[in-house]
Write a structure and sequence with these properties.
The complex is a heterodimer. Chain A is of the alpha/beta class. Chain A is 33% helix and 16% strand. Chain A is globular, with a radius of gyration of 27 Å. Chain B is α+β, with helices and mostly antiparallel strands. Chain B has a single domain (14-421), classed as Cytochrome-c3 Hydrogenase, chain B. Chain B contains 13 helices and 13 strands. In chain B, the strands form 5 sheets. A 3-stranded mixed sheet of chain B has the order 2-1-13. Chain B has a 3-stranded antiparallel sheet with strand order 5-6-7, covered by helices on one side. In chain B, strand 8 and strand 9 form a beta hairpin. In chain B, helix 3 packs antiparallel against helix 4 (85-115), helix 4 (85-115) runs antiparallel to helix 10 and helix 11 packs antiparallel against helix 12 (393-403). The chains are: A alpha/beta, B alpha+beta. The interface between A and B is large, with 53 and 54 residues.
């Protein structure tokens, strides 16, 4: 190799130190260490300042001090390799997130620690950009030394080493919108999302050729900047979850751990479809409430946007109808494609309850930053993870009542209702021609309404019919149990 | 305020040393472990008993074998399972293997550079030392790998015994490896016994280790204090006072109000007569240094030799008697159990309470570094005045701390030295 030796650094955050040993104990890696300049490795007694060419780091980031150090390390290193399960996915030490609230007290008694543990612990790429990840607990020594060799000898990994399964070079960043995230690393280019979106807003298309082909909004725009209305239909049809809703489960846990009481609003469409994920062919809304209460929510309210929309009674202006966008996606649809009708828009109907978390069938609501939004898929994942850790089966949960219900539908005059982009276009075209003068229009972005929302699981015709039936009848079911149904 | 900030290297973990100085004399010394709190004891509560060995293995990368075996002993104690003789000797073999690789890693990689005037062994150019270290480590790792499937984060040792029993061919392979590398262990002892160790005063002479009548105890149920006072492990809670201090994430331990030490030198002092023949004959050459923390270095090297002889004996027995497959029946019932082993750094205690479904209701783990922490601080306190202001102060203090081989990731990684002028 040419003139200059590579400068290597090895940092350890909170973990057992096993990956460090796995690397040292490998004879080939040991040999390679002789060929490089070790700049920082506490175990070997080196502590020089950066910059470093190749930096290995292991362990989870668990304190403010660690976050500060990691950011400094990232700035100084050309290549950062996350070594081992802890650094890649937070591993066993990360389990402490699931420890009970009183754990500090349980372990240390009443002594006030100077170094306070933080809530927001996580793997390295939670805080900085990581170039290579090597998984395993501990890492496989020969794989680690192989990667080490490739990095030291400057051999391009994408071309030279086909059998290198465990190294995943990140050639592109995720396209992260407020509601939808597109991960081209996972994408298998089946184009289902493009087909779905062509019927809605045509926000996605194919770019580049050959092995560089990728799915992206036009001009590789950000999801939010494109014509995407965040309806989430693409996320329902993606077979590999390469395009998915932005996961807010961690945010919800953060709110829950803040100590304040947390209330949640559950939409009817989520309450009736939650059992599908757990393999139950019955209505499980009571069990959903029980699970949420166990996770740590205080009050759980039931509400339905379809009913809420009826309470809005806007006055039509001039020759335009009054337009109620029943979800945020519909609002963005009108603003993007029919800007001249924007003056006739009202605000999307809001629930009358005050809550911090909204649990519903919709990805579009994530655009509105008012409440933290969990879709049906996110909440079922959250419940599943919680129950697995606590060794509880879903059908062992009890049937618990909602704390408050908002379901009454007032008598309103005839309204023009449009569900899905196709119908919305027809109605809005009519409206711009002035044919709907004096009427009130309700817009729903998802074809088939909220039961087939972008945050729901993909469902057959049969299940969709059942969801509709159940969500229409849930009000009377709750009447029968003599629950107080709130009048707004 | 005057401060020198440095990080203590060549120890496993992050730690910090703070010294308060007023008018040229030392007022206070604080040995801070500032590894993040890890809460293993808290998040294990509510998990099933068979998850426990998998989790505790990840407490430490160097002595994970000990953590695993100790938790298994504690759980077997709680469930009332009696391990077979074969399982017991296989477990002894795993601990021997773990001691060999861990002692050698510490002595060659972390301690030796201080005495040969090098920053680290890799760049020192001493290829014969490196070769020897790799040979010894390969032997220790191979023993653990054959019995438990992996050298680090082992998998095959479980409650009740072993998932896989080594074949006769594998036992013979181990015998060959142990015989081949034994000469390296003897040479290492002579190397570490010939080091010029500094004269370090030690404040407290109390030490603690497991004791057994018939063998050099690495597992057992009786704890001996300085060789005169003995108590059963069940009494550890009443005998050992565990307290938390605000400046450190590791708890502190005292017995009868005094600090004490654990580790290879405590074991040699208490059980030295039961070492293998060759290692026993070597004790006299370093016995006088055992009272100083530096005595830990030759003691560790002698212990490695014992582990070689003991492993050889067990392996020969297994090779002649043959190993057989066994599947113990596990009945889940509520209970409380304590397991103790001697790990590289000293006595390791695991304590669990299980409920009727086999879920963990309470967990307590005391690691050797937790025991040693207070003793390290006390030893530094009585030696620091001598080094105060000298240019190699950091080097000298680090050398003392390294002799204890503190494993900070276990106890709750750099040493920051701060001198505060009051």
């Amino acid at each position: 190799m040419s003139a200059k030796k590579k400068r290597i650094a090895f940092f350890e955050f909170g973990d057992c130190g096993g990956c460090e040993l796995a690397l040292i104990e490998n004879a080939k890696a040991f040999e390679l260490l002789g060929k490089v300049e070790i700049a920082y490795w506490l175990l070997l007694g080196k502590k020089e300042e950066g910059p470093y060419d190749i930096t290995f780091a292991e362990g989870i980031v668990a304190s403010e001090h660690d976050i500060h150090n990691l950011r400094k390390i990232r700035e100084k290193s050309r290549i950062l390799v996350a070594l081992g399960a802890d650094a890649c996915v937070s591993g066993i030490p990360g389990l402490r997130r699931f420890a009970n609230k009183g754990s500090v007290q349980k372990v240390y008694g009443n002594v006030e620690l100077e170094q306070k543990p933080i809530e927001n612990i996580g793997p390295l790429d939670h805080f900085v950009k990581v170039d290579y990840v090597l998984r395993g607990c501990p890492v496989n020594g020969s794989q680690a030394s192989k990667l080490f060799e490739l990095l030291v000898e400057d051999i391009p990994i994408e071309q030279g080493e086909k059998s290198f399964d465990y190294v995943k070079p990140r050639f592109s960043e995720n396209n992260v919108g407020r509601a939808i995230v597109l991960d081209n690393e996972k994408c298998i280019l089946c184009e289902r999302c493009i087909e779905v979106c062509n019927d809605i807003v045509s926000a996605l298309s194919i770019a580049e050729r050959g092995i560089n082909t990728l799915i992206t909004p036009p001009f590789r725009m950000n999801m939010d900047a494109s014509s995407c209305i965040s309806c989430g239909q693409c996320t329902v049809y993606c077979p590999v979850s390469a395009i998915y809703e932005r996961d807010n489960v961690a945010d919800v846990y953060r709110i829950l751990s803040s100590g304040k009481p947390v209330d949640a609003i559950v939409e009817v469409e989520t309450a009736v479809s939650i059992g599908e994920f757990f393999g139950l062919n019955e209505r499980c809304h009571g069990m959903l409430v029980d699970a949420l209460k166990r996770i740590g929510f205080r009050n759980i309210y039931l509400s339905r946007s379809k009913n809420r929309a009826k309470f809005l009674n806007p006055k039509p202006i001039g020759r335009l109808p009054a337009i109620i966008p029943c979800c945020y996606s519909a609002k963005k649809f009108v603003e993007t494609f029919y800007p001249r009708l924007a003056q006739a828009l009202t605000q999307p109907p809001k629930p009358s309850f005050k809550a911090d978390v909204w649990i519903g069938p919709c990805t579009g609501r994530k655009i509105d930053g008012e409440m933290t939004v969990l879709t049906t898929r996110e909440v079922s994942r959250m419940i599943r993870d919680y129950l697995t850790i606590k060794y509880i089966e879903f059908n062992e949960l009890e049937d618990v009542n909602f704390d408050d219900v908002e379901l009454r539908e007032p008598e309103v005059g005839r309204r023009v209702i449009a569900e899905g982009a196709l119908e919305m276009r027809q109605v809005l075209d009519k409206a711009s021609r002035g044919e709907l003068q004096g009427s009130v229009v309700e817009l729903w972005a998802c074809p088939g309404g909220c039961n087939a929302g972008g945050g729901q699981y993909k469902a057959s015709e049969e299940i969709l019919v059942r969801r509709k039936e159940w969500s229409d009848s849930i009000g009377s079911a709750l009447w029968r149990t003599r629950w107080w149904v709130r009048t707004v | 305020m005057k401060g020198i900030a440095d990080q203590i290297s060549r120890v496993v973990g992050h730690s910090k040393l703070e010294v308060d100085v007023s008018e040229g004399s030392v007022r206070d010394v604080r040995f801070n472990i500032n590894e993040d709190s890890r809460f293993f004891e808290a998040f294990m509560v509510g998990r099933k008993y068979d998850d426990v060995p998998e989790i505790v293995t990840r407490i430490c990368g160097t002595c994970n074998a000990n953590h695993r075996i100790t938790s298994i002993l504690a759980l077997e104690n709680a469930l009332g399972i009696k391990a077979s003789e074969q399982t017991e000797s296989l477990r002894k073999l795993v601990i021997n293997g773990s001691l060999i690789q861990s002692h050698m890693l510490h002595l060659y990689l972390l301690v030796l550079p201080d005495y040969i005037g090098a920053d680290d062994l890799l760049s020192s150019g001493k290829t014969d030392y490196l070769k020897r270290l790799l040979n010894l480590k390969r032997c220790g790792n191979r023993i653990v790998e054959v019995l438990c499937g992996r050298p680090i984060q082992l998998i095959d040792a479980v409650v009740g015994g072993f998932n896989v029993i080594p074949s006769k061919r594998k036992i013979e392979e181990l015998l060959r490896v142990v015989k081949e590398t034994r000469a390296d262990a003897v040479e290492s002892f002579h190397l570490f016994n010939s080091l010029k160790l500094p004269d370090i005063k030690s404040s407290e002479k109390t030490h603690m280790s497991l004791k057994s009548g018939s063998e050099y105890a690495l597992t057992g149920r009786t704890i001996s204090l300085s060789g005169c006072d003995e108590f059963d492990v069940e009494e550890y809670k009443t005998r050992i006072e565990e307290t938390a201090v605000p400046y450190s994430t590791s708890k502190r331990c005292r017995i009868d109000g005094r600090s004490f030490y654990v580790g290879a030198r405590a074991r040699i002092k208490i059980n030295g007569k039961l070492l293998s023949d060759e290692s026993r004959s070597l004790i006299s050459s370093f016995e006088s240094s055992l009272d100083s923390p530096m005595g830990n270095i030759p003691a560790k090297a002698a212990e490695v030799l014992h582990c070689y002889d003991d492993s050889l004996q067990i392996l020969e027995e297994l090779a002649s008697k043959g190993v057989r497959e066994e599947k113990p029946k596990i009945e889940i019932k509520p209970g409380e159990g304590i397991g103790v082993t001697e790990s590289t750094r000293g006595t390791l205690i695991h304590h669990y309470i299980l409920d009727e479904k086999g879920f963990v209701k309470y967990a307590n783990i005391i690691t050797p570094t937790t025991f040693n922490c207070q003793h390290i601080e006390d030893t530094l306190r009585c030696n620091i005045q001598e080094f105060l202001g000298s240019p190699d102060m950091v080097f000298q203090l680090e050398r003392i701390i390294r002799a204890y081989d503190p494993c900070i990731s276990c106890a709750s990684h750099f040493l920051d030295l701060t001198v505060k002028e009051l």
